[in-house]
Amino acid sequence: MFHFSLFSIFCYRPEVQHGKYNLEDETVGQQTELEHPEMLSWEIIICCIVSGAHTFGRARCLVFRHRLHNFNNVPGSTDPTIDPTFGDVLKQLCPDGGNGDVLIDLDPTTPDDFDRNYYANLQNNRGLLQTDQALFSTAGANTVAIVNRFASSQTDFFNNFVQSMINLGNLSPLTRSNGEIRRNCRSIN
Ligand code: HEM
């Protein structure tokens, strides 16, 4: 599927750089998919690349513990996309009703190294955040191929990550009808 650098595509698609669309907003995301199906895909792909930054650092229990206890408001249920052994460890570290500020490694394999293991963890259902695991566990998602690709080649991941960060850093401020900067990132102004 990916016979050339993801970046050559990114660089040649100026509409991606407008940054008009915020995937965090489900409603806008659906509208975008209807109007620009390719664009939504490419934004997700870029998200998949830069999320590799979660190869180190920590997250507080409060941002992911909904996956461990009462998932989807079902009492006692756990997110089925979490490896059961990993889930048991997390439940002990982040008990239901416990201290939400406890810090957990985003990459349980090599928590302080910038490497390809973030993607290997996703293949083993050991992504900490729901947004991380979704890159691999969403049926039919085009990010699955990227996870597999970067899990098998650290050099490939590094090259793509570097260029993505440069491209994101070069995004221009939005003016007039080009888009908007949200006052509240959860909704359009
Ligand atoms: C899909 C988009 C992303 C989401 C939803 C996301 C979400 C999060 C969350 C919830 C945390 C834990 C924060 C806390 O507990 O207070 C976190 C930590 C972190 N994120 Fe992201 N993130 C995203 C993209 C990125 C990107 C693009 C980068 C950098 C290029 C990044 C780098 C980090 C780092 C380094 C940490 C650990 C911080 C620390 O240990 O102090 N994230 N992220």
Write a concise synopsis of the structure shown.
With 189 residues, the protein is mostly helical. Helix content is 43%, strand content 3%.
Care to describe what's here?
The chain is mainly alpha-helical. It has a domain of 111 residues. Helix content is 43%, strand content 3%. The chain is built from 8 helices and 2 strands; from the N terminus they run H-H-H-E-H-E-H-H-H-H. The chain has a two-stranded antiparallel ribbon. It is globular, with a radius of gyration of 18 Å. It binds protoporphyrin IX containing FE. The site of protoporphyrin IX containing FE has 12 residues, from helix 3 and strand 1. Protoporphyrin IX containing FE (HEM) binds next to helix 3 and strand 1. Belongs to the peroxidase family. One of its GO terms (biological process) is response to oxidative stress. One of its GO terms (molecular function) is heme binding.
Structural classification: mainly alpha
Spatial sequence of strands, sheet with the most strands: 1-2
Question: Total helix count?
Answer: 8
Shape: globular
Bound molecules: protoporphyrin IX containing FE
Helical coverage, percent range:
40-55%
Gap between N and C termini = 37 Å
Main sheet: strands, sense, barrel:
2 strands, antiparallel
Mean pLDDT: 82
Strand fraction: under 5%
Gyration radius, rounded = 18 Å
Number of strands: 2
The residue ranges in which pLDDT falls below 50 over 5 or more consecutive positions are: 1-34
SSE string, helix = H, strand = E? Answer: HHHEHEHHHH
Family: Belongs to the peroxidase family.
EC number: 1.11.1.7
Organism: Gossypium anomalum
Keywords: Calcium, Disulfide bond, Heme, Iron, Metal-binding, Oxidoreductase, Peroxidase
